[in-house]
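Hey L., structure's done. Input below.
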Amino acid sequence: MHEIDIRNLDLNLLRVLHVLLEERNVSRAADRLALSQSATSHALGRIREYFDDPILARTAQGMQPTSRATAMAPAVARILSDIASLSGRDDFRPETEEGLVRITALPLITVHVLPRLFKLLSKQAPGLRVECRQWSASTLQEIERGQIDFAIGTRAQCTHDNLLVEPFLTERYSCAMRRGHPATKKRFTRAAFEAWPHLMIDSALPQTGPINATLESLGVRRAVNYSTQHLLTAHLALEQSDLIAIVADTIAQLYTRSADIITRKPPVDVGELSLFLASHPRHRSAPLHVWLRERLHDVAEQDPKWHR
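Output:
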């Protein structure tokens, strides 16, 4: 087994290793590191020699980390975060920060929060790049491995013993239907809600659809004539039919701006949708992550324009 002598470890190589594992591409890593491609390739060669491992291997899907590199990634990210925290927040300047921020979020967040975050970062931290990903079964593990910086989802999604989880956003629910729907001719009662066919948003991840479980627990009967996993295009079906859908209020308001859709308050008390922000504790005091966490909360507290 190859023994590592940490006395010969160049800490600059750890930053190169970290960026290479994130980008999985020498050219993109070179751009982030402000190095030439040849210098980055040379650094990768030194990293491979030091760890006696290919680190990145060419596959049909492009360059992919080896199993050992994948296992090392969280420790490398933690070490760099700890080193950065030693300098304190006095030296942190968002306008000069560079790098990639990876956020996993529900569609609601991509509508409600991220557009305003992008606008804010373009002014206050133009050197940062943001990559938004969809939730998957591996999201929590990706946070642990340092492959995701923040994840925003339901309590069920974010629950994990090793993560920092905090309340983030609370949403109401609305019923969405086409303008002129027969259910709007009279008072919108529970009987009316149950009488008409429904479109159910059925996510690929069961824990992302708490409203369906809530309605079931309340004994609400729905004739589900159509279901879809495509939340952001469901309104197109509503506009062309007598279907009714119950969705987060921000999504319902987006429907009204994108199609001839109207909204009604649910005729039963379905409660609210609580979302949470998850990150790894190793970033708790890292200046960039502290600043980004604050900005995320700032933009989440702003109502979308169509709510005013």
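The two ends are 64 Å apart (CA to CA). The domain at 173-271 is CATH 3.40.190.10 (D-Maltodextrin-Binding Protein; domain 2).

-- N.
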